[in-house]
TrEMBL record:
Domain of life: Bacteria
Residue ranges, compositional bias (Gly residues): 506-526
Record organism: Arthrobacter gengyunqii
UniProt record similarity statement: Belongs to the cytochrome ubiquinol oxidase subunit 1 family.
Keywords per UniProt: Cell membrane, Electron transport, Heme, Iron, Membrane, Metal-binding, Transmembrane, Transmembrane helix, Transport
Subcellular location: Cell membrane
Lineage start: Bacteria, Bacillati, Actinomycetota, Actinomycetes, Micrococcales
Membrane spanning stretches: 20-41, 53-71, 91-115, 127-150, 185-204, 243-261, 370-392, 404-425, 465-487
The keyword Phosphoprotein is annotated on this UniProt entry: no
Protein name as it appears in the record: Cytochrome ubiquinol oxidase subunit I
Topology within the bilayer: Multi-pass membrane protein
Length: 548
């Protein structure tokens, strides 16, 4: 493997790893802010508990997302310096906006939210969370603006062989961005929905296993209590509401993802036709969508690929909104790409060992073809599971089946898989370009960069192997830490975020828990007393809000 190959593996591994945290942070943040809004509006204790429990998991994931995300920007300078020189004039604006405007706002107000429990008024405290969460959404917008420019360059002019920004508004309103952003936000919400559903199912099942909740003859739940371990009636309300909210979020977000994904696909057929042809293993022109193709999908000439199951007219509809317009296949597109961008990498030292080699315009079809289907399939499975969960919990609890519980917990991974597969498809389908050219009038012609030209010229194969190994070890350690933290606080339930529930014997689920008549936040008065009249022991959670 050359330094270029190892650099691509390194960026791919670190990016996909980081992206495991991103959709959960965005989606769960929006859910937690909504839950706290419900608590402020209604004063119901279960919404306070939900806010604190899911808020703790949100913060664990947020912190890990920051730690893993920092690596991405360093790689631009370490392994991809030529790329940085090429796109630097364009990327400077959206990335600066992301750091200086969105990320700083997000960090400041999230800090106020963490340490503001009991110190800020309820509405001001809630406003801090909403500002932080919306800033994270804005941060995603600016990052996607940069990525969308790589998919579809706009708002620039070429000066001495480099794109120079002349219209920041064009970059921030790129049509690729305007469909990619809602697609990503709805995909993030699908991750949050599955996360709530799986964890809540586990706790409802645990209540049944421990004999706390039973089922009446008509199938309705008989909610029990064991307040000494924090398993009171409000605890049941926390989990059944979390499950059903998660299921609704998962179903609605899947619909949003499907609609925005269709719009995004139509743009890609216009802007990156080779990517979409590879996604369909469409070697020849046609109108049929391949449900299943077999053969050597990595073959350069596509001759060995055969469609086993296909839907006539569907590919044409996905690309053109009709059922009879033929879509260009790989064998038609390759000569067009060769005529427009050449048959060989230029014989220039900046291309290193790739200089003068033949250009392979066909992405790895096994990755694009199956990545596209994994993305759709896992998303559909998650939505179907959410619909099933809504139906089976209509009487207030989950079945006693241990296998169903395990499926619900492992089902948390489905939307994560859909998100990761979608990103892998999007980025690998763009090859051999790191900045894709525009074959249509909607972009700027002749703005593109081969991936072979983007890697740092002074980086050796040994250096890349060393850095990749170091990143892999660090990321493995971070993965162990995050998984252990998530498992620890998930298994601990609400008391893991509110230890005072154990010391005070739990609440009765009424609206008084969490609403102080004196105006204090989180059910505590200014003197640290419980709103019920007792004195709460000073615990770390009382001092720091979430013990962070």
């Amino acid at each position: 493997m050359e330094a270029l190959d190892i650099a691509r593996w390194q960026f791919g591994i670190t990016t996909v790893y980081h992206f495991l945290m991103v959709p959960l942070t965005i989606g769960l943040g929006l859910v937690v802010a909504t839950l706290q809004t419900m608590w402020v509006r209604t004063g119901k204790d279960e919404y306070l508990r939900m806010t604190k429990f899911w808020g703790k998991l949100f913060l664990i994931n947020f912190i890990m997302g920051i730690a893993t995300g920092l690596v991405q920007e360093f790689q631009f300078g370490m392994a991809w310096s030529e790329y940085s020189r090429f796109v630097g004039d364009v990327f400077g604006a959206p990335l600066a906006l992301e750091s200086l405007l969105a990320f700083f706002t997000e960090s400041v107000f999230l800090g106020l939210w963490i340490f503001g429990w009991g110190r800020l008024s309820k509405k001001l405290h809630l406003a801090c969370l909403w500002i932080a969460v919306l800033a994270s959404v804005l941060s995603a917008y600016f990052i996607l603006a940069a990525n969308s420019w790589m998919q579809h360059p706009v708002g620039v002019e070429m000066v001495d062989g480099r794109p120079v920004l002349n219209d920041i508004w064009a970059v921030l309103t790129n049509n690729t961005l305007l469909v990619a952003f809602p697609h990503q936000i709805t995909a993030a919400l699908s991750v949050a929905g599955g996360f709530l559903l799986g964890i809540a199912w586990y706790h409802l099942w645990k209540r049944r296993r421990d004999g706390i909740d039973t089922v009446n003859e008509d199938g309705t739940v008989n909610v029990g209590e064991r307040p000494e371990i924090g398993r009171d009636k409000a605890d049941h309300s926390v989990w059944i509401k979390s499950l059903r909210i998660g299921a609704v979020v998962a179903m609605v977000s899947f619909a949003g993802t499907a609609i925005t994904g269709d719009l995004q696909g139509k743009l890609m057929f216009d802007q990156q036709p080779m990517k979409m042809a590879a996604a369909e293993a469409a070697c020849h022109d046609g109108t049929s969508f391949s449900i299943l193709s077999v053969g050597d999908v990595g073959a350069k000439n596509c001759d060995d690929v055969k469609a086993v199951i296909e839907v006539p007219g569907l590919l044409s509809f996905l690309a053109n909104n009709n059922f009879d317009t033929e879509v260009k296949g790989v064998n038609t597109l390759i000569p067009e790409y060769q005529e427009a961008y050449g048959t060989h990498i230029p014989d220039d030292p900046k291309y290193g060992e790739q200089a003068g080699t033949e250009i392979d315009y066909l992405p790895v079809m096994s990755v694009t073809y199956w990545g596209f289907r994994i993305m759709i399939g896992f998303g559909g499975v998650a939505a179907a599971a959410a619909a099933f969960a809504l139906w089976i919990t209509r009487k207030g609890t989950v079945p006693e089946s241990k296998w169903l519980m395990r499926l619900a917990v492992f089902g948390i991974l489905a939307p994560f898989g859909a998100n990761s597969a979608g990103w892998i498809f999007t980025e690998m389908g763009r090859q051999p370009f790191v900045v894709a050219p525009n074959p249509s009038f909607t972009g700027i012609d002749q703005v593109f960069m081969f991936t072979a030209a983007a890697v740092s010229p002074g980086v050796s194969r040994a250096e890349m192997i060393f850095s990749l190994s170091c990143f892999a070890l660090v990321y493995l350690a971070l993965l162990v830490v995050e998984v252990r933290l998530l498992f620890k606080f998930t298994r601990g339930g609400v008391p893991s975020a509110m230890p005072e529930l154990l010391s005070s014997g739990g609440h009765d689920g009424g609206s008084s828990g969490g609403m102080d008549s004196a105006g204090g936040d989180d059910g505590t008065g200014s003197d640290g007393s419980d709103s019920s009249g007792g004195t709460k022991p000073k615990q770390p959670d009382d001092v720091l809000g979430f013990a962070y």
